[in-house]
Specification:
Elements lengths: L1 E8 L9 E8 L1 H6 L6 E3 H26 L7 H15 L1
Parallel strand pairs: 1-3
Antiparallel strand pairs: 1-2
């Protein structure tokens, strides 16, 4: 288990009174999955790392779905035709 210390700086300075610290406990697997490299991080860096991991998971899922529905082998023109057909049906 890892304890991350997250902090967010309020205002333009880094004075102690402008800083809040949050401790977050995560598993070793999550620590490695999200790419944390140190136990004290600015909150904005944690958000970036988590957003990056969520985007990567969404991309992997998109690739899986495109292979499942045989879209990976379609040309851009074929994909455009499919999209237009669906839009036409919705009207």
């Amino acid at each position: 288990m890892h304890i991350l210390k997250l902090f967010h700086i309020f205002g333009a300075t880094k004075r102690k009174k402008n800083m809040k610290t949050i401790n977050v406990q995560i598993s070793d697997t999550e620590y490695d999955t999200f790419g944390f490299s140190k136990d004290r991080l600015p909150f904005s860096e944690v958000v970036d790392l988590i957003e990056r991991q969520i985007s990567l998971q969404a991309l992997k899922r998109s690739v899986e779905l495109s292979e499942q529905y045989h879209l990976a082998s379609m040309t851009m023109d074929e994909i455009s035709e499919e999209v237009n057909a669906v839009r036409t049906c919705r009207k």
